[in-house]
Amino acid sequence: MKKWVISTCILLVGMGIVLYIWLGKEIEQGVEPNANGSADYMIILGAKVKPGGVPSLSLKSRLEVAVQYLTNYPHVKVIVSGGQGPDEDRTEASVMKDYLEQKGIEASRIIIEDQSTSTYENLVFSKELLPKETKKITIVSNDFHLKRAKYLAEALNFEVDVVAAKTPKSVEAKLRIRERAALLKTYIIGY
């Protein structure tokens, strides 16, 4: 009986390691295809906002790459997508809009989606703001997050390309572990 328990534990640990590695490889594939200006709409996925409307490091890195992209492709309109968490004093979308405008992006190019509280809601609620015929979109998020975001967007019948923001080193390990669990959940239940 004891041998059976040990064998089962070894098997489960082995399966866990394989699953962990596989999910890591899946996450790495999220940074392709790289956006090239062919989509008329971009969605920046929200992330934590600190007190006083200060973007977290993750959100700031998303915004920095978005500004560069929007500057290079002036025909692209952008949806800033993110509601207000219980520990946030402003909506993520309002902080993103202010940041973009301060960096020279015209207000007429920015569409606000400020009700979402998850990646899935970011995409569902943003889709409602897009012209009905829109099929192709560009998603901006941190590199670790893009695989799941693309998966969810494709489930909503979008064709997706991406702009990958680097994940801040100070939070990378924690976010990559958490994202593996979120990606597995998404694969199992679909959102």
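(ticket continues) Second input and output from the same batch:
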Amino acid sequence: MKSVWIAVRVSLLFMIVCGLIYPLATTGVAQVLFPKQANGSLIETEGVVRGSELLAQGFESPKLFQPRASAANYDPTASSGSNTAVASSDYAAAMAEKVEAWKKENPKLTDIPAELVTISGSGFDPDLSPEGTKAQVPRISRATGLAETTLNDLVDRLTKTRQLGIFGEPRVNVTELNRELLKQVKL
């Protein structure tokens, strides 16, 4: 019976430490050291929350850069992949349709980066490779009247490098890029 009470007390102690003290301490430290990230890296315009830097948003205008496609339709309450097998005829047909749509919107584009037609695993990838982003520059240049060199310079300026020089790949946050583009262009 004594060992049962010891087990109960140790269990309660660990529930309090691991379930209450530790989460409160890490949340407190995060709020002090990284308040923006701890609160979701929210994007605010004139005091109104417009989204998060961590989640892709769908942009319909041909004047804006398009992120990766989302199986969840960019709805943050419905994160999901497509679960369509790569070897299926449905997948092949969907990819062919997307490639044709990209070619129609971007006639100068001869080599379409795969990330522009495939769906993000989570449905919310905010980043594209610099190549995937720059593939859209001719279309946006035609739609906005901005020079391609200006748009390429904007992409280059907002390209993030590998973390610590070795982790990940160079990437461009499409939401951030479009926010900067909207400062130069009226929709």
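Agent notes: The chain has two domains: 1-39, 40-182. Helices lie at 2-33, 35-38, 89-105, 130-134, 137-144, 148-158, 174-182. Closing as not reproducible unless the customer responds.
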